[in-house]
Amino acid sequence: MKITDCHTHFYPRFAAENPEAWAACAGEPYWGALVGRRADGKRSLQGFPDEKKFLLDMDRAGVERAVVQGWYWEDPATCSLMNAEIAKFAAAHPDRISAFASINPAFPRESLEEIARARDLGFIGVGELHDGVQGFRYSSREFSEIALACAGAGLAICAHLTEKSPRQYPGKRATNFEAAYAAARACPSAKFIFAHLCGGDAVGPSFEPPPNAFFDTAAFPLTDGAEAVAKAVKKFPRRALYGSDYPLRLYPRKFINEEMETAVAEAKAAVPTGLARKFFSGNFESLYAR
């Protein structure tokens, strides 16, 4: 069965070798705090595989294609820098790697310029976006213009939604759920992906996503678990997308390093056989069907 992991990340060596120092120089305090030394003394969950290990982990897990999401960088210059690096990775492995471009909608001019370049560089989407970190508003006129530009370029939009539970962990920042959903409804020509099971909303009893919205399962072993994935897939069989959030260390008690195999196996065991093809690849492909 074809497997597309629609939510992964990749960081070039110049950022990965000493992420705290690089983040300080680049003006990215949030990312630096997230991947650096934790206040509780525990090791960060973030892994930093190089290209070779990234592809090897895909092979071991049976993942045919990985979609490298951008990050919610604070500085537009970082977005441009990282887009250039990730574009090289995707171009070197067009049969295995697709990518979303980083933008910060709080800087609309720079975002529109980056969107205009993204398609030419081979990107298939924009995001992951995080209003709580990047400081933009989904309800703004500027974001509406960005969404329309993405629709015109054929780029899907991936938005991070933080789980609503009271559980706390390093880097947790709230997101405006209703504003994000309203932005999707206001631009029906754009395709939206709401990450992390819509922050858990996808398994809520009365939730109904916008008609142009999908959701992924990124980081499910750390948040809602495989039971929630199964529930969401059964409830929304045409909206659910498999995503892992690799290279997060999703099973820190089992593995020292990042890996893909365990999350794939857990999702396979949880999702009904009749819905698996759509969940693992078909629904993501439908985003780009004409």
Describe, in plain words, how this protein is organized in 3D.
It is a single chain. This protein is an alpha/beta fold and 290 residues long. Helices cover 43% and strands 11% of the residues. The protein is built from 13 helices and 8 strands. The protein has an 8-stranded parallel sheet. The longest helix has 17 residues, at 76-92. The chain is globular and about 45 Å long.
Q: Key terms for this structure?
A:
single chain; 290 residues; alpha/beta; eight-stranded parallel β-sheet; 8 strands
Q: How far do the termini sit from each other?
A: 23 Å
Overall mean pLDDT stands at: 96
Residues in β-strands, percent: 5-15%
Structural class category? alpha/beta
**What is Rg?**
17 Å
Could you give the count of β-strands?
Answer: 8
Number of helices: 13
Poorly predicted parts: none
Shape: globular
Largest sheet: 8 strands, parallel
Percent helix range: 40-55%
Q: Write out the strand line-up for the largest beta sheet, numbering strands in chain order.
A: 1-2-3-4-5-6-7-8
Order of helices and strands: EHHHHEHEHEHHEHEHEHEHH
